[in-house]
Amino acid sequence: MIKFVPEPHLLDSPRGRDWPRLPAPPVAGRETRPPATAEVVVVGAGPAGLAVTSALWHHGVRDVVVIDRDGRPCGRFFDRIDRLGQRVLRSPYEHHPGVEGYRDCELVDFARLHWARLTPVERREIRMSQAGHRSVVPVDVFEAYCAHLAASHHVGEKTWRGEVREVLPAADAVTVHAGAFTVTARHVVLCLGEERRPAPDSWWGGGPTPPGTSYWDEPAPDGGRQIVVGAGLTAAHLITNALSAGREVHWVLRDPGERYQCADVNSTFFRPEGRKRFDSVGWADRLALMNQFRRASIMFEFQPLLRQAEADGRLVVYRGETVARIATGVGGTVTVRLASGRRIAADHAVLALGTAPSIGDGLLPAELVGERDGWPALDERTLVFERAPRVSAVGAATAMVLGPAARNIDGHRVATTRAAAAIAAAVREESPVRTLREAVGV
């Protein structure tokens, strides 16, 4: 197997370039609440929500309300990326939230259209992509592409800020409660993404993190010695940022060594033939495969940077170590005690413990989620909840149907293809019978 080993300078793609944008209808001055009814409500406006809403537009389903805690398409997705200072995505050019089968502008097409704005390195990556090789996508290009999709499919004007608290299916409709407003729809799609994985209560006794300790997606102080706990790409960004700022870094990872690879390189489950292989095995085998292929990994570009820092003594790595306790002492010093008995003292500790898929529990009644081993019960053809057939899932929650690819941006597109077609067919079948307003008595 030929490994994809790009050079470190790929991490230096510019951020914040001025991209031509399609005109989008202004949302300022509109009603503060969405319509009380809609054909479809999409919960979450990240890449999965963008893909679903765009696909429904192509299917002719235009009466859609998107509810998102940030209130803008992919806003939280890029905020989290920028907090890490991430400049390139681990997904290749062929992985994007564009709609399959409708001749939409794809990500590589969009990049080629703006060739003059790209660096020589970025242009070389596009040539590699066109030659069939895996290539690296700049975050700046991907964000501009998502803005293009949102504008061309009218996603922004359908998106409303709200914190969804409850999703209640009934026979003819689904009611979505979002704090200040409620929307009733024929169908709901949960595009909930993933949330950070919390530290075990035993590390400090539960509750808020101790002073001087934070999670990777929270603000952290500048300067001083830093401890990073975690083994994946997020940890690599945190470490690189701290080293660039001249800080001494101590890195704790429970595996015996770093995994400098990218799951996307492994085509075992990220191509149609791989997903078909995943389909052919039973639940126990799928669960084992998910546990194996969900391990944290680091992009190859970081390997020379981190190994050189370790050789220079600027980075101290504790391989095969687990955290037993985190405490803050006099003067604000943070002490991390490892299971081996070793202690690390620093000015700040950052936890990058990975993420866990949001499967709809806490929104849907637990009995409708049908949770099993941490995954929802979904129809494999349509991705609807087996016990709530008017509610679908797209994104990481579909992993026990689509395999590890479900957590990937291209996995969102594959899931969307199934879910959007099924929803559109149901809407066409239901519409002539009676309007939604008649069905719910509005």
Topology:
Layout: E1 37-43, H1 47-58, E2 64-68, H2 75-84, E3 88-89, H3 107-113, H4 120-130, E4 137-138, H5 139-152, E5 159-161, E6 166-169, E7 174-177, E8 182-190, E9 194-196, E10 213-215, E11 226-229, H6 233-244, E12 249-253, H7 272-279, H8 283-293, H9 302-312, E13 315-319, E14 323-328, E15 334-338, E16 343-346, E17 348-351, E18 355-357, H10 366-369, E19 384-385, E20 388-393, H11 399-402, H12 409-430, H13 436-440
Parallel strand pairs: 1-2, 1-8, 2-5, 8-20, 10-17, 11-12, 11-17, 12-13
Antiparallel strand pairs: 3-4, 6-7, 7-8, 9-18, 14-15, 15-16, 19-20
Task: Write a structural description.
- This protein has about 450 residues and is an alpha/beta fold.
- The chain has 2 domains: about 10-195 and about 355-440, FAD/NAD(P)-binding domain (3-Layer(bba) Sandwich), CATH 3.50.50; about 200-260 and about 295-355, FAD/NAD(P)-binding domain (3-Layer(bba) Sandwich), CATH 3.50.50.60.
- It is about 30% helix and about 20% strand.
- It is built from 13 helices and 20 strands.
- Strands 1, 2, 5, 6, 7, 8, 19 and 20 form an 8-stranded mixed sheet that branches.
- Strand 15 and strand 16 (about 345) form a beta hairpin.
- The longest helix is centred in the last third of the chain and has 22 residues, at about 410-430.
- The protein is globular.
